[in-house]
Structure formats: structure tokens, C-alpha cells
Amino acid sequence: MKIGLYFGTFNPIHIGHLIIANHFAEYSGLDQIWMVVTPHNPLKNKQALLDDYQRLQLVFLATEEYPKIKPSDIEFKLSQPNYTLNTLAHLQDKHPNYEFSLIMGEDNLNSLHKWKNHEVILQNHEIYVYPRISSELENSIYKNNPKIHIIDAPIVEISSTFIRKNIKSKKNVRPLLPEKVWEYIDHNNLYKR
């Protein structure tokens, strides 16, 4: 089985994440998409994150009606900060018959050379890339790499930061979130402070 790993803090998960995950599930040749909730991205401030299990719950609520998209807490069990290479090695040990690939935006692809042991990741795993509005793929050092697959996916410019900021400002961001995610956030007064 070919699994696409879509990593993120998902703080919170929003419809843009779902549009991208569903597009890859339906059009990339991957059998399933695992939404890997990252407890601590080494490039982000952990203090700004909602509790790990609340974010996992939001991903569960958002994906429960999508049979090809699954929430994953695999990084909760690994040492922090989380490095993609370590997660991939752990998953390969746990599921030796699965083929794991990464899903990332082109902005992440352009900074891949800064990742811990990125050469090993590229050697052993395929990477599926979705576009951003400011396309830099023409100048990317990875554009001709056979392990990189650029997918013609919808360009979605919604950010979790925008959503959090506007919930705090009492703006209506309900259309940007799956219904059950919005209900959970509203019921639990999340992101309001």
C-alpha cells in the first residue's frame, strides 16, 4: 500500500488541508493519506500550539467521513523535537509492507536542503508536491529529481494562523473549517484568548 504522509501541526485543521489531502487521495496514485499531527515542529514555537490530543481530535473530526484520509499520532510516541527522517524510519519498521511518501507544499520543497539528513529522505522516499501561488519550482534544485512528483492540485491559500487570529478577534471563520471542527472549537472556547 502506498501511503502519503501529510505532516502538520494542524493548529487547527481547516478546509484547505482537507482539499489538498483529498486531492492527493483521489488523483496522485496514493492509496491513503495519513494526516500526521506533529507535536513539535523544530521550526515552530511549541507554546503557541493547542494541546496535542486536542489537535488530533480536530483532525479525527475533520477526516472521519473520508475513508482514504486517516489521522495519525505516530509522532506523539517519538522523541521531540520531531524530525521527518526519524518518523519515516519508525513507520517503515512498524509497517514494512507499506511504501511511505511525503506530501508537502512547494515552499517546503524549496527548504528541503535544510532538513536533517534530507539526502536520505530523497534516496528512500518519494515526495509529492502541491503548488503555492508564488511558484518557485522553476528555480528549484529538485525540479528534475525523479523522486519529486509535482501534482496539479488546487492552490489553497488559507492558513491556521489567519484562523486563530480571527477567532481571537471574534470574526466569523466558520466557512474555513469543517463543521465538526468549528463546533468543537466553539464549544471548547479554543483560540479565543
TrEMBL record:
Catalyses which reaction?
A: nicotinate beta-D-ribonucleotide + ATP + H(+) = deamido-NAD(+) + diphosphate
Q: CDD domains of this UniProt entry?
A: NMNAT
Which Pfam family would be a valid example here? Answer: CTP_transf_like
* Gene Ontology MF term list: ATP binding; nicotinate-nucleotide adenylyltransferase activity
- UniProt pathway annotation: Cofactor biosynthesis; NAD(+) biosynthesis; deamido-NAD(+) from nicotinate D-ribonucleotide: step 1/1
GO biological processes: NAD+ biosynthetic process
Q: Where is the Cytidyltransferase-like domain?
A: 5-165
Question: For this protein, what is the EC number?
Answer: 2.7.7.18
InterPro entries (alphabetical): Cyt_trans-like, NadD/NMNAT, Rossmann-like_a/b/a_fold
Q: Which UniProt keywords apply?
A: ATP-binding, NAD, Nucleotide-binding, Nucleotidyltransferase, Pyridine nucleotide biosynthesis, Transferase
Function in brief: Catalyzes the reversible adenylation of nicotinate mononucleotide (NaMN) to nicotinic acid adenine dinucleotide (NaAD).
HAMAP family, sorted: NaMN_adenylyltr (MF_00244)
Q: Which family does it belong to?
A: Belongs to the NadD family.
Record protein name field = Probable nicotinate-nucleotide adenylyltransferase
